[in-house]
Amino acid sequence: MPAAGPVHCSELFAQPWEPLFDRAAQVAQPPVELALWSGLRLACLPQPAGDTRALAAARMPLRDVEIALIRKAVNEARGNVMEAARALGISRATVYRKLAQKPGK
After folding, report:
1. Model confidence band, residue 28 (pLDDT cutoffs 50, 70, 90)
2. Which terminus of the chain, N or C, has less C-beta within 10 A?
3. What is the DSSP letter of 38?
4. Mapping DSSP to helix (H, G, I), strand (E, B) and coil, where does residue 35 land?
5. pLDDT tens digits, residue range 59-86?
6. Dihedral sign computed on CA atoms, order 61, 65, 66, 70
7. pLDDT tens for each residue of 33-52
8. Which of 43, 40, 37, 32 is closest to 15 using CA atoms?
9. pTM of the entire predicted model
């Protein structure tokens, strides 16, 4: 199990992390699509350092967001894991592995 605390973004994103900082420095930026190691993709808005506007909502660990998205897809597929995996663009094994994880762990 990984240690609690800060992790480097290369442990989360399945793509080079350097361009993310370049995008955050731009004044008006469209959402950027980020690939996670699980195969899921997230649309994110880069925020400059020190910009706390996006922190108004409760913070949620990325792992918990990922699990919640997978659970939502399975619910929308009425329990059909294969259909949910196809809709998410990930393997059925990844769906089962992520569903076995407990949020916050």
Report:
1. low
2. N
3. T
4. strand
5. 677 788 888 889 999 999 999 999 999 9
6. positive
7. 777 777 777 777 666 666 55
8. 37
9. 0.54
Query: CB-based contacts of 17: which residues, under 8 Å, 6+ apart?
Result: 8, 9, 10
8-15: list long-range contacts, CB under 8 Å, 24+ apart.
12/36, 12/37, 12/62, 13/37, 14/39
Q: Give the type of residue at 54.
A: A
Please, what is the average pLDDT of the chain?
74
- pLDDT for 1: 43
d(CA 57, CA 100): 27
For residue 59, CA distances in Å to 13, 33, 65, 75, 81 come to: 18, 20, 10, 24, 28
